[in-house]
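Action item from last week, closing it out:
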Amino acid sequence: MVAITLSADAPVVSLDGTRVTANTPEGIAAIEEFRKIIAHPGQVPANEVWSGAWGSADTAVSTGLAAMCWTGNWSFGIMEENGIDYMSIPAPIVPGGQPRAGSYINCLVVPESSANKEAAWTFIQWALSKEGQVSFASFSDSPVNDEAADIVAAERNAENQDGFGAFNIGERYPYASLPTDFNMMWDEMIEDLQLGTITAAEFAERLESEGQPMIDEYLANIAR
């Protein structure tokens, strides 16, 4: 849903992570497009996307029970190890929309209770360096260090030009982490949307009426 609402320029949550912004005509239309996809009879049930016999959204095709999965370039290795002849396609967009590639950000922090703050800070500095980010990208996600990003992009593009290009189409939009209670509500609502017990308009309205207070409280706690 993140990519589809972004393609309509109506992200679920504002790019600074402070406001629910999908409860607009454009956002509702994008949510409806998403509903059509997940309501297809051939779709994995929403509550089994990250568990069960299907595997995870990243590894579903490697189980042999799914023909397609929503993943990133970090899963190429898994598919190749399983002898899967795969292809990749860009995320769907709303009619007339623009391709958008949403991205999340992994965060490293030093807990206040840490007994080794200086050592932890030294590690974080290395982890954010070119060398650290290239190392991280070898087994996980894409780097945020500019130099490392260029190195990794060149390597992955050389390995699989078509696949890498599909995963990096359009503009990149980093989206903020959301409160746990918001994510739990979101997951439950997506199941309801798939089952047809709520409409796209009701989904968007609940995101705003119930989700915005969760975000406000979350941000207030961070500021303390």
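Closing note: The chain has a mean pLDDT of 85.
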